[in-house]
Amino acid sequence: MSELPESITNLTNLQELYIENNQLTQLPESITNLTNLRMLYIHNNQLSQLPLRIGNLTHLQILAIANNKLSELPERISNLTNLQKLYIQNNQLTRLPLRIGNLTNLKVLDIKNNQLTQIPESISNLTNLETLVLTNNPNLFIPDWLRQMNIRFIHYDVNNVDVNPFEVHDVFNKISDEQVDELNTFLSSKIATGIDGTMDIKTFIKTKIDALIDELSDQNLPEKPEGYYTNEDGTSVSNLREAWDVLYAERIEGLHPNLGLKDPQLLMLRLILLYVEQQPENFRNQYVKSFLEDSTCAYEYNRFKENLSCAKGVIERIILSLRGTITITDANSTLTKKNKEDYTIIENLLIGAFDEEKVKELIQEWIKGNKQAIKSNNRDALFIYLRSNLQDVRVEQLMSNKIIKETIDYIFDGNYSPENVAVKNKPSVPSGKAENRNGARKINTLRLRKKKQNLLQKKRSNKKKKGLTRKKKGSTKKRKV
User: How far apart are CA 229 and CA 242, in angstroms?
Assistant: First the structure.
């Protein structure tokens, strides 16, 4: 199909439109009358421009325009304030709209394989952005403010930038031992084949990564610009497969057998690679590309520095790349409901643990100036505040913590009183004195249990004291006789 029929614009209630994989060279301006559209997939066509009034599609949540011939985007695209995912990779873009930062609900922005040279500063307004892919923009400079943004997954080539390869340690170290054990249990239940205990861990890694590379659907990994991943003799590798061979030889092969990990983490490493190899083809391809691009990017300009021995970072990226792959493939409509459910569980378990005490302090601080938000049951206001102060923390992760969940539920249960929350960490008082302006005070489960235990201990202690007193009195009378 080379053009859309004008009659399509009569479908004013249409919410999803899939017209990808055609030969469309332009879209009729009237398509912008489909104001109820939520999803628009027009990737893999021959489009050189988008309708100027595309900003009229204000309900749009997903826009996929990858693999076209676009050299620029209309400025009015910044009116799509409900947009959550924007895929514009593999075009010919030389610049982004200056007001792209207006897309404040954006979570995923993929603009790899273009001709960008700079990033608009307004992107710093995208506080909900979780995934940003900028790779293969050869002349793109990555500013410091962009690298300091709280973006969970950011991918870029190293151009005039020294990447800090130690950042991955901070992310990895936040994953608690409990999360590792829970993930191992979950992955074990999903893997059809058992673990071959006879193969040492380093051979296991090399075998699995090599297999993932070999079975790539296009049989090729992206070519890199001249000078990418330069060897000590001055020669350059031509693609990421050659980079992996060098990376393995220099970073993994000579490591101690435990690779610097604890036993449960070593098990997690094996289980993740086994889990990946039984996922759909597009998932496997995305995983191995993400891992190799991230690893080689982190070391390209740092690998010959004296203070850099960071081999463990490569191993950690094998684990953390699973989380990044889940995020990138989230919009793939071919995934089954069960796949998505499993991926959500894994993604949450690979999010680092947070400081529970700090969360409590932040909640107390937020309460002081947000009584109206509490009264209107506006939990989102609290979550936005917490996420802005806690790096890499998601709402699901917060609510999976029993103490935090009970605290938040208590605040918004309708019986809230500022005095109650203010004394939440103080010693409990007898129930007769624990009333507030709204009536009987609601005490959370843990405090109630603790209070009961204290009362039982007091009763036992009183009985013992009474028994001792009687004996003393009895012995006194006998002496008087």
Answer: 9
Residues 6+ apart with CB under 8 A from 426: none
Per the structure block, which two tokens stand in for 52? 């100027």
Domain boundary among the residues 115, 139, 161 is at 161
Give the residue from 174, 130, 197, 148 showing the smallest Cα distance to 351. Answer: 174
Helices (H) and strands (E) in the chain, counts: 16, 9
Instruction: With beta carbons less than 8 A apart as the criterion, state whether 370 and 192 touch.
Output: no
Same domain for 322 and 177: yes
Residue with token string 């993929």: 110
203 and 135 co-located in one domain: no
User: Is the domain of 243 the same as that of 370?
Assistant: no
Please give the distance of CA 181 from its chain centroid, rounded to a whole number: 20
Q: Are residues 363 and 324 in the same domain?
A: no
Residue 302: how many CB atoms within 10 A of its CB? Answer: 16
Place of tokens 């973006």: 151
Boundary of a domain, candidates 106, 129, 161: 161
DSSP state of 195: P
β-strands 131-133, 16-18: how paired?
Answer: unpaired
Higher local confidence (pLDDT), 147 or 221 = 147
User: Would the pLDDT of 434 be above 70?
Assistant: no
Beta pairing class for 85-87 and 153-155:
unpaired
Q: Are residues 345 and 364 in the same domain?
A: no
Cross-strand partners of 154: 132
Lowest model confidence (mean pLDDT) among 239-253, 355-369, 411-425: 411-425
Q: How far apart are CA 163 and CA 297, in angstroms?
A: 8
Please give the helix or strand (H or E) that residue 372 lies within, else none.
helix 371-375
Identify the pLDDT of residue 418: 45
Three-state DSSP at 439 gives: strand
Same domain, 291 and 254: yes
Higher pLDDT, 478 or 341: 341
DSSP for 61-118 reads -EEE--SS--S---GGGGG-TT--EEE--SS--S---TTGGG-TT--EEE--SS----
pTM, rounded to two decimals: 0.51
pLDDT in tens, 8-19: 878 888 888 888
Sign of the CA dihedral 277, 281, 287, 289?
A: positive
Q: Is 161:139 a contact under the CB 8 Å cutoff?
A: no
Q: Which of 318, 314, 310, 311 is nearest to 269 (CA)?
A: 318
Q: Is the separation of the CB atoms in 356 and 401 below 8 Å?
A: yes
Coil vs helix vs strand at 332:
coil
**Cβ atoms within 10 Å, residue 308:** 14
